[in-house]
Amino acid sequence: EAVYLVDILKDVIDVFKLSHPDHEFILLKEDLGKVYGDKEKLTQLYMNFVSNAVKFSPNGGRIQLSVTKEENQLITKIMDEGIGIPEKDIPKLFNKFYRVDNSATRKIGGTGLGLAIAKEIIMAHEGMLVVESKIGEGSTFLIRFPVWEEELVQDNKVKNISVTDKDLVMVVE
Ligand code: ATP
Ligand code: MG
Question: At what angle do helices 114-124 and 39-55 cross, to 10 degrees?
Answer without folding.
Answer: 150
